[in-house]
Every structure is written in C-alpha cells, then in structure tokens.
Write a structure and sequence with these properties.
With about 400 residues, this protein is α+β, with helices and mostly antiparallel strands. It has ten helices and nine strands. Strands 5, 6, 7, 8 and 9 form a five-stranded antiparallel β-sheet that branches. Strand 1 and strand 2 form a beta hairpin. Helix 8 packs across helix 10. The relative contact order is 0.09.
C-alpha cells in the first residue's frame, strides 16, 4: 500500500493512498462467490447459480461495495503507518477505480492543530470585589416571598412593588409605533421591565386612571428605529394589586429545600447560596477577561469540524434554555447566530489545553472534593450528590471544571 501526505494548511491534510488491484480483485471475487451460495435467481436452484451469472448481475454493485470498505480499511492502516490522529471524518475523493487497475484515492481530513502555549505576560486582569450584606439577604428573601405571594386587588394609589394591569399605546410623533401597544399587560412597579420612566410614571395611579407618559427610549435600545427617540404613551390603569407575602415558616423554607424553623436559620442558608453564586460570578468575569484577551492576541486556525460540533452543542443549549421540545429540528436554527461565539469557545479550549500541557497541570484532588462538597450544599440530600460524583465517570466532569479554574 502506497501512502503520501500533503499538508494543505496547518490543520488540513490530503492523504493519497494506493491499493494494489489484485487485493481489490481478490476481495471482489470472494464476495461474489459468497453471494453465489445464497442469491436467488429465477431458473436456478439456491446455491447453484453459476458464478459468471452472479458476476454479470451483481458484479458492479459488489465492486462498489468492496471499494468503499477497502478505502475505509486502507485509510485506518495509513493513519497508523503515518502516526496521524484525525479529528474529523475523512472526505474520500476517488482517483482511479477502474477494474484491473490499482485503486487510488485521496482522503481529506483535519488534524488537531499544533498550539503553542500563549504568552500570558501581557494579560491584565481586574478582579471584581463584592460582599453579600444583610440588606442583600433581606432583599433576596423578599424576592423569594413575592415569588410565592398571592395578589389582592386594592383601591388605593399604587406604590412600588404593586402589580398593575394596564392597556397602553405608544406614539412617536403622532404615529403609533409597531410593538408599542398592549392590552391587559401586567407590570410590577419597580421591576424595570419597561423602559426608564414608564413604571415610575405609574406610581400613584389608581384603577380607572388614564395616564400620559412622555419618555425617551435609551440610546442603546434594541430597536434602531426607536433608540434615542422621544415617545408618548397613553396608559389606562385597569387594576392595582398588592402582593400578600407568605409567612416565614418551615413550610415556606421547605419550598427552597431548606430544613429549618426560624427566619435567622433561613437567612444563613440564603446567604451561603448567594456567596456561592457570587464566587461563581467573579470566576466567570475573570475567565471572560482572559478569553477576550487571548482571542485578540492568539493567531490560531480553528478546525471546521470542531467548530461545527461546538455550534451543534450551542444550538442544543439554546433549545434547552428556552424550553424547546426534544423534537425540534436544530437545523432550523441558523448556524451564523452561533458561529462567532462557537469559534471563541473552541479557540479558548485549544489554548487552555496548551497551557495545561505546558505547565503539566492535573486536577487537584482536594479542590475537586471541595467543589463537590460546595455543590452538594445546595441539595436537599447532599450525600446523594457526593455519592454520584464518587464514580470516576461522573467525577471527571468536576475535574474538568477544577483544572480550568487552575489554568
């Protein structure tokens, strides 16, 4: 078997492979003889069909089948011979397939790029500092209570945190603009779900009031047609409701998987959870700074196969995040929406892998145990999670996270 390899780029290879004709012919002949023993043809008894009849009827198809198998086998042998590890399925381009001639074909595939560990001396990191204070915990508990609160209609003037049901129409000049109208819209005052000034302008309104709001869309508003524009909203307040909060008792605490009796105990648990989220947020900010800077400085070719895999993974994440069904056709999501972020993810993974190799990093066992312990604290049955991660195939998931943190 003859093999030659051409590097068409830093990540693409064209491998030309030649298979002797006698090897092809022997395999075709063996396959035809095997078929002759089982094939059914009118006028012949099973197993008694002459080989020349089988060859005439099935020879072309059998040869195509054998050539396909031989290309796959020869490609695998050539990879071992050349000590090459591909990261994508090959694209076969036949050159010579005629009977009586050596089989020759080209396999085009991608290889893992040679990535040098990036120079970190120019990176500048700013670590955010924040502290969970008592008022933050109180605010969070208020949010949790409102999530399980019940609405009660009131006749008084509205105030912050009330829920209003309104109809409104928005105008730019004298024209009602698209998307600027709604009926029976529920708005929680102070939630910032509307543009600045909208909710503040409804504080003090009562059911039945008609309010005119003169506002300006933010300069960075999502719609270019409205960004920075002055607008007028005609609003009719239909109902004003206040939220009746549930009592802080063991029944309420259990809704969040916390087994305790007093508000003070619940505050301790809420603060622990907020501190965990804060730590994750800080780490995420730091990682993003590193990713952004490495992306600008690293000149790295991203293999198309790895890029496509990452795009498919991001499509699946998007479907799960927005509650899409399992049967949603991912091909309906445009790949262009994910391409830039996917390319950055792949590039970051390659650079991190190079750093891990350069510095001989391995996941620190103590840090892995600490990470699993911290994760388990947010579960009602912590030991179940700890036992699950005790299995090597599950523990490796946390090891990946820890080694990334070590990078």
């Amino acid at each position: 078997m003859q093999v030659s390899v051409e590097a068409t780029s830093s990540i693409e290879r064209r491998m030309t492979i030649g298979v002797p004709s006698d090897q092809v012919d022997q395999k075709v002949e063996a396959r035809l003889q095997q078929a002759a023993r089982t094939v059914k043809i009118n006028g012949f008894r099973p197993g008694k069909v002459p080989l020349n009849v089988v060859r005439k009827r099935f020879g072309k198809g059998v040869r195509q089948e054998v050539v396909g198998e031989l290309m796959s086998e020869a490609f695998g042998q050539a990879l071992q011979q050349q000590n090459i590890t591909p990261i994508s399925y090959p694209r076969f381009e036949p050159k010579t397939m005629e009977e009586g001639k050596d089989l020759e074909f080209v396999a085009v595939f991608e290889v893992y790029p040679e990535v040098a560990a990036p120079d970190l001396s120019g990176l500048e990191l700013s670590r955010p500092e924040a502290e969970i204070k008592e008022k933050d915990v109180k605010n969070m508990i208020d949010v949790l209570r409102r999530t399980h609160g019940t609405l009660k209609s009131v006749k008084r003037k509205s105030k912050k945190k009330d829920v209003l049901t309104v109809d409104f129409v928005g105008y730019v000049g004298d024209e009602a603009f698209e998307g600027g109208s709604a009926k029976d819209q529920r708005i929680t005052l102070g939630s910032d779900q509307m543009i600045p000034g909208f909710e503040d302008g409804l504080v003090g309104a009562k059911a039945g009031d008609k309010v005119e709001l003169n506002l300006t869309f933010p300069a960075d508003y999502g719609s270019e047609k409205l960004a920075g524009k002055d607008a007028r909203f005609e609003v009719e307040v239909k109902t004003v409701e206040e939220v009746e909060l549930p009592e802080l008792n063991s029944e309420f605490f259990s809704k969040y998987g916390v087994s305790c009796e007093t508000e003070a105990e619940f505050e301790v648990e809420v603060k622990k959870n907020m501190e965990r989220e804060l730590e994750q947020a800080v780490m995420s900010r730091l990682k993003q700074q590193i990713v952004d800077q490495l992306d600008k400085t690293a000149d790295l070719a991203v293999p198309s196969s790895m890029l496509e895999q990452e795009i498919q993974r991001m499509k699946q994440e998007a479907v799960q995040q927005f509650g899409g069904g399992q049967n949603l056709d991912l091909s309906r999501l445009p790949s262009e929406l994910f391409k830039d972020r996917a390319e950055k993810r792949v590039k970051t993974g390659l650079l991190f892998a190079a750093l891990i190799k350069e510095h001989g990093l391995q996941a620190d066992a103590a840090r892995v145990d600490a990470k699993i312990q911290a994760m388990s604290e947010s579960y009602e049955e912590p030991q179940e999670l700890i036992s699950w991660y005790a299995k090597p195939e599950n523990r490796v998931q946390v090891e990946h996270v820890v080694i990334e943190e070590q990078v």
